[in-house]
Amino acid sequence: MADSQTFVIVGAGLAGAKAVQALRERGFDGRLVVIGDEHHLPYERPPLSKDFLAGAKTLADFTVQPAGWYADHNVELRLGTPAASIDPAARTVTLADGSTLGYDKLLLATGSRSRRLPLPGADATGVHHLRSIDDAVALDLLFKDAGSLAVIGAGWIGLEVTATARGRGLAVHVVEGAEVPLQRSLGSEIGEVFARLHREHDVDLRLGAGVAEISTADGAATGLRLADGSTITADAVLVAVGAQPNIELAEAAGLAIGEGGVLVDAALRSSDPNILAVGDIAAAEHPLLGARIRTEHWANALNQPAVAAAGMLGEPAEYTALPYFFTDQYDLGMEYVGHAPDYARVVFRGDVAGRAFTAFWLGDDNRVLAGMNVNIWEGLDDIKALIGAKATVDPAVLADPAVAVADLVKAAQSGS
C-alpha cells in the first residue's frame, strides 16, 4: 500500500482503536488519523457500568492502547475535536475547529449516545446518564455520598448499574415500562429470571410503570413521580433508556440510512465505496442470518474493524460473526449468542431457579436461533455451531442435559 494514501477513522472508541491496529497489522503504511470528541484515549465501555463503578478497575485497565502505541505506530490522534461534516465528493472531513482532512478511505465508528427523555426535571442537577468515562466518574462520586438511586429503564445499563449500586450499599428503585426487565432484548421468559434476581437483592422494581416527571427541589433531582401518581424519593436519578446511534454525519453526507443506522453490506461498505461503517451505527447484511441487523454490543466494536480494514485495503472480507453480548450482575454471569427477534419458544436446560442453566430460543420450525449460558462457562462454541447449522431440534431433547449439545451439532451437520 502506497504511503501517500490517507485513511481517516471518525470515532475514537474501541472500534476506532481496533481499526488502526488492524490496518497497521495488515501492512498499511500510509497516513492514519483518528478523530474523536472525547479527550481520553480510546477505551472499552462495558467496564463503566460494572468494574469501574465497583472500584475493581481504573480507566488505564480498559484503555485499548497506551499513548505510546499510537506514537510508535505513527497514528495521529485528533482527540477532543469532533468531526463536523463529511464531503464525499471532495473526500474531506471538516472538524469542529474548522480544519479539514482529506482521505482516500474513511471509516465511520461514531458509536451511540445515551437517549434523553423529554421529562420535566430532566435537566436538573443529579440526573445522570452513562455512556462515557466522565459519566462514570460522576456516578462514582455520587455512590460515595448518596444513599439512594432511582433508575429509569431496566435494560442492560440500568440493571448493571443497579447491581453495582446495591453492591456499594445504595437503595435502588427501578422503573420500567415493560412487564419484565430486558423484554426487548431477551423476551419475557428470561426477563423473569432477571426480575427475580434483582428483587432477591432488595431492589424496588416497578414494572409496567411510566414516569411522569423527575421531581426536583431547588434545581436538584429528588426522585420520580410516576404516571399513576405514586412517588419515589431518591438522592439522584439515572436515565438508562437505551442508546441513540450517532448517524447524523453519515446522513448529512448523503449515505444510505435505514434500520436506525448506516446501511452497509457484509463487507461493511456504505453506499459510498470509499466510506465504511462499523459498530453501533452499522446496519449490516449478515450472510449467515440472511438479514440486515444492527446491534449495539461490544463484540461488534471489537471484531468488525478487522473486516473493515480489509475492505479499506481492497481485500475481500465479510463479517459473519453471530451477535454476542454478556453481562455480570451480582452472582449472575451470562453470555448470549445469536439473533432471535421473532422466536416461538424458549427451551431451558439446567437449574433455572439456581441460575445455572442454558436457554435456547427456537423459531416456529424448532430451529435454534440463539442461546445463552448463565453461570456456565463452557459450550458456547457448540451453541454457535448449532445456530450455524440451522439445526431443527426436538425441544424435549434440547432440554435434556444428558444429551450433549455437541452431539446435536454432529447430528445436524450429518443430516441425521
Verbal overview:
The protein has 416 residues and is an alpha/beta fold. It has 11 helices and 27 strands. It has helices at residues 14-25, 67-72, 133-145, 156-167, 183-186, 188-200, 248-252, 298-312, 380-388, 395-398, 405-414; strands at residues 6-10, 31-36, 75-79, 83-87, 92-95, 100-102, 105-108, 112-114, 127-128, 148-152, 171-176, 204-207, 211-217, 220-226, 231-233, 236-239, 243-245, 257-258, 261-264, 275-277, 282-286, 291-293, 324-329, 332-338, 345-351, 356-362, 368-374. The protein has a 5-stranded parallel sheet. The chain has a 5-stranded parallel sheet with strand order 9-16-10-11-12, covered by helices on one side. It has a 5-stranded antiparallel sheet with strand order 23-24-27-26-25, with helices on both faces. Helix 1 packs parallel to helix 8. The longest helix has 15 residues, at 298-312. The mean pLDDT is 96.
List keywords for this structure.
416 residues, alpha/beta, five-stranded parallel beta sheet, 31% strand
Summarize the structure.
By secondary structure, the chain is of the alpha/beta class. The protein has 11 helices and 27 strands.
